[in-house]
Design a protein that fits this description.
Radius of gyration: 21 Å
Shape: globular
Helix content: 25-40%
Bound molecules: 2,5-anhydro-1,6-di-O-phosphono-D-glucitol, manganese (II) ion
Number of strands: 15
CATH architecture of the largest domain: 2-Layer Sandwich
Distance between the termini: 61 Å
Largest sheet: 8 strands, mixed
Strand content: 15-25%
Strand order of the largest sheet: 2-1-3-4-5-6-7-8
Length: 360
């Protein structure tokens, strides 16, 4: 017999959980519910290009309703897969201004789920990979329902995080703090099967990813750093590394995780608020930072570890540098040495404290 082992995501999560003596199974089920939502979103994503054709032929829709936008659909599916399980006390989605309460007729639990239901959504209509990002925090307040304090916790307190990439195949990658594991969806059996065990970011980086279109708005240290990445200063040995950027964070991050490299979405001078960066700390950066660290990598806002940032707003934005540790630390060095102008603007924002009833 061959040595091949077929391990479903459910079995894998269960095996991981057995390593914890006080495990209750709550976690296993929570991750499995996310995997289930991912399968449904994957199905719809694959059909996205057919929506107009099939929709026009579909007589059953007597209201003549158009198909929902995929990001709204993904948002609802994730919420509905998780609202009635008794495992969560609240959720928060990039698509909603406020935290999402568990409906009063359902039990609540001791975790919160944060998610970006569809990342890279501008890529749907052009058939480029999109993704879902999720992270889980433990409840810290005492009531039955979760509050904003349960949701806006720093990344170092995360108990699990992951993402799904809807690409040439659909993959789910997650970590509960015991390494990073990747599963590929086998559509014929409807299961996520273990395909990438214990992912480690390769030591030799292959790619850097940044939107070069905004280069003229970059602060000088970022510009010099990117030149360094291009090998003009001997980065990554004496060889330049390749540049790849899709506009879907999940897809760019996933590629660099498997191949080695760095993704950056720096702060810039585009407008009055872009000194804060674009990506969202709570829905995008924290989860991927957790994964990167578990895979031996590192992430930073250009000042320090993403996981150490004490958030002050649910929709807080952050610059992001993520990937191989040495490459990300090099970005910090360039910024420290050359971007005083930016640091003076940014540090007070970074140090801002969460204040109930105030937004930034
Ligand atoms: P979302 O679709 O969830 O709003 O996120 C889009 C993000 C991210 O996926 C990507 O890296 C970035 O926006 C791309 O932005 P630019 O088009 O400015 O490069
Ligand atoms: Mn996103
Ligand atoms: Mn999104």
């Amino acid at each position: 017999m061959s040595q091949m082992r077929i391990i479903t995501i459910e079995r894998h999560i269960l095996q991981q959980q057995l390593r914890h003596p006080n495990a209750t199974g709550v976690f296993t089920n929570m991750l499995y519910d996310i995997a289930m939502a991912a399968k449904i979103i994957s199905r719809e994503t694959n059909r996205a290009g057919l929506v107009d054709i099939l929709g026009a032929a579909d007589q059953s829709n007597i209201h003549g309703e158009r198909q929902q936008k995929l990001d709204v659909f993904a948002d609802e599916i994730i919420f509905k897969m998780n609202d009635h399980t008794g495992r969560l006390c609240a959720m928060a989605s990039e698509e909603h201004d406020e935290i999402l309460a568990i409906p009063p007729h359902y039990d609540t639990g001791k975790y919160v789920l944060l998610y970006d239901p569809l990342d890279g959504s501008s890529n749907i209509d052009v058939n480029v990979s999109v993704g879902t990002i999720f992270s889980i925090h433990r409840k810290v307040t005492t009531g039955a329902q979760g509050t904003i304090e349960d949701v806006i916790q720093p990344g170092y307190k995360l108990v699990a995080a992951g993402y799904i990439v809807y690409g040439s195949s659909t993959m789910m990658v997650y970590s509960t703090g015991q390494g990073v594991h990747g599963f590929t969806l086998d559509n014929s059996v409807g299961e996520f099967l273990l395909s990438h065990e214990d992912i480690r970011i390769p030591d030799t980086p292959k790619y850097y990813s940044v939107n070069h279109g905004y280069e003229k708005y970059w602060y000088p240290g970022v510009g010099e750093y990117v030149k360094w990445l291009q090998g003009m200063d001997g980065a990554a040995g004496s060889k330049a590394i390749g540049h790849r950027y899709t506009g879907s964070l999940v897809a760019d991050f996933h590629r660099n995780l498997l191949r080695g490299g760095v993704f950056l979405y720096p702060a810039d001078k585009r407008d009055e608020t872009s000194y804060r960066g674009k990506l969202r700390l709570m829905y995008e950066a924290q989860a991927l930072a957790f994964i990167a660290r578990q895979a031996g990598g590192y992430s930073s806002d250009g000042v320090g570890d993403i996981l150490d940032i004490e958030p002050h707003d649910l929709h807080q934005r952050t610059p992001l540098f993520i990937g191989n540790r040495d490459l990300v630390q090099k970005a910090e060095q360039y910024i420290r040495e050359q971007d005083q102008e930016w640091l003076e603007k940014y540090l007070p924002f970074r140090e801002r404290k969460y204040q109930p009833n105030k937004t930034s």
